[in-house]
Amino acid sequence: MKQKDLLALVEEFESPLYVYDSEKITSQYQRLTNAFKNVNSLRINYAVKALSNLSILKLFKQLGSGLDTVSLQEVQLGLKIGFSPDKIIFTPNGVSLEEIEQVAQLGAQINIDNLSILEQFGTRHPKVPVCIRINPHVMAGGNSKISVGHIDSKFGISIHQMPHLLRIIENTKMHVNGIHMHTGSDILDIEVFLYASEILFETAKHFKDLEFIDFGSGFKVPYKEGDIETNVEELGQKLTQRFNEFCKEYGRELTLAFEPGKFLVSQAGYFLVKVNVVKQTTSTVFAGVDSGFNHLIRPMFYNAQHRIENISNPKGRERFYSVVGYICETDTFASNRRINEINEGDILCFYNAGAYCFSMSSNYNSRFKPAEVLWHKGKGLLISKRETFEDIIRNQLVVDFEKTEKQKVTS
Ligand SMILES: *Cc1c(COP(=O)(O)O)cnc(C)c1O
Fold first, then answer.
1. What's residue 183's pLDDT?
2. All domains of the chain, ordered by start, with CATH?
3. Is residue 261 within 6 Å of ligand 1 at its C-beta?
4. Global pTM value
5. In the prediction, which pLDDT does 150 show?
6. Of 186-190, 287-291, 330-334, 392-396, where does mean pLDDT reach its minimum?
7. Does residue 182 line the site of ligand 1, with CB under 6 A?
8. CA-to-CA distance for 233 and 279, rounded, in angstroms?
9. Contact in structure between 128 and 173 (CB atoms under 8 Å)
């Protein structure tokens, strides 16, 4: 997107503001499907938790995508926008049997990731097809906050538990129609990913009625200079070949599924904030903006480095800044970052603000969540309104202390 368009959107919708470029989302989706064009049957299930706005889900529906969901409410969002339930997979962790049953009732594909629930669900609903989430214990890169395949991870059923898993299936006569892995949020190394896939293929041989194999996600996109990006074209070529071979061995055409979030929406997003104050201390220059970790928590939570540009003064002399928020906590977005000279009132743009940014925002400090705009065919379309004071107090009830005291006395 052009900086002048972003500035115009802040003029129109005010700051802080999230903007998503529909063209970028579309091209990422097409890049992925294109990389796997030689697979007989491919399913992309967009991971709703990355960015769950209804209009974004509608865009994915138009693209032909399915959805990957982690809560009953995410399933309901998908249904609300018109996804047919068989296009929705439910891949939760640590949720109750009741929630899984509710989702099964709605007709979405269930994915179970522990033996306890598997046994209970299989006993009660042997006819409902389930997918099984395997933990292949492979670290597909990333740091410990985002790698979920390792031995201490809470995700998935360990491959070392296969004998018990198979016994449960035999005892309950339940129907397994898919197997799944999601090894972490960053595929750094295609070879490591392919290695994990081999474990999944080995596992798949134990099940006779599979319809699909789901390879999860973990596609990496660059956030800062020098970051590597998953080479999806190379992955597509190598995995397609192995997958097609496997289908021959298995004796049936299976669907190859992925469930990316970040890859599809991260780079499409821009977060625009206004500089409230430039504050010089003895050691640094702070740029204090009209936002904080209530709107964008990734820098503090994951040490994520989002590129920041001063789009009000793109030709200005570069200086070193610490960009901080207005929350009464240490909420540093970036320290010692080289940015074009910042003046109070300037608009700063955070890049890669599509995935896990708005969807992780909160009302901390009783602040409003930002508005969200979809940039579509040269127009800015409002897709969620900025909150108001009414939103902050909507569910709150004020106790009438005097009345409760009186009731005590009379009763
Ligand atoms: C979060 C999640 C994803 C999406 O991961 P990205 O890194 O955003 O691509 C996919 N599958 C499952 C099960 C998840 O929990």
1. 74
2. 20-261 (3.20.20.10), 266-381 (2.40.37.10)
3. yes
4. 0.95
5. 63
6. 186-190
7. yes
8. 46
9. no
